[in-house]
Write a structure and sequence with these properties.
With 208 residues, the protein is of the alpha/beta class. It has 6 helices and 8 strands; from the N terminus they run ααβαβαββαββαββ.
Length: 208
């Protein structure tokens, strides 16, 4: 992976996967599943739209992204919103050993990109970042989408989700939805909303 490559997506304006608004699916899951407020890590946070929204809801947020330019924009966004978010430039496939386990993680589009490099290393990263009972929400492209190859996000099949995430994580709920329209989209892309729980324990809630 190249940080320069990812920086290029942010140099010319808003990349196609950013809608300018917090993810509608993230907002729905936080509300309907009553995700406890606590520490959360946003994997592939981009310019911090979802990280800032989570902080505004009372979460203690860490956002990581491979693009240093995206991280700079994310810090500016958080400052403008008046919230505190810890933003770090880092490679999700090679994270530094500085994170305590998170009770919740969020991934909008990171998994479906890095799995093409090494899905097993990605899941091992999640294992390092969580404890048994930790929850996670992955939003990823759906292989049933009708868009042509090269258009829209990378896609994953239901069978691939089960094969790559289990048995480390239990898939609590898998449903289809559509990504919010990006700046260059004419139609929304079909996606998966995958709520997972780290296997081996009851729901992990921090004592704060």
């Amino acid at each position: 992976m190249s940080g320069i490559k990812w920086d290029a997506h942010y140099q010319s304006g808003t990349p196609p996967w950013e809608s300018g608004q917090p993810s509608s699916e993230l907002q729905q899951v936080i509300a309907e599943d009553q995700i406890p407020r606590g520490r959360v890590i946003d994997l592939g946070c981009g310019t911090g739209i979802n990280s800032v929204w989570l902080a505004q809801q009372g979460f203690d947020v860490t956002g990581i992204d491979f693009s240093g330019l995206a991280i700079d924009k994310a810090r500016e966004r958080a400052a403008a919103a008046g919230v505190t978010v810890r933003f770090l430039q880092a490679d999700v496939l090679n994270l530094p050993d500085e994170f305590e386990p998170f009770p919740f993680f969020f991934d909008r589009g990171c998994y479906h990109a890095v799995r093409r490099i090494d899905a097993q290393v990605y899941v091992r990263t999640l294992e390092r970042l969580t404890l048994p009972g930790s929850l996670g929400l992955l939003l990823t492209g759906n292989a049933k989408s009708s868009h042509k190859p090269g258009e829209g996000p990378p896609v994953v099949s239901e069978a691939e989700l089960h094969a790559e995430l289990e048995p480390t994580f239990e898939i609590v709920r898998l449903r289809e939805f559509h990504f919010d329209l990006g700046t260059h989209d004419d139609v929304p892309f079909l996606a998966w909303s995958c709520l997972v729980r780290r296997a081996g324990g009851h729901p992990f809630h921090e004592h704060r």
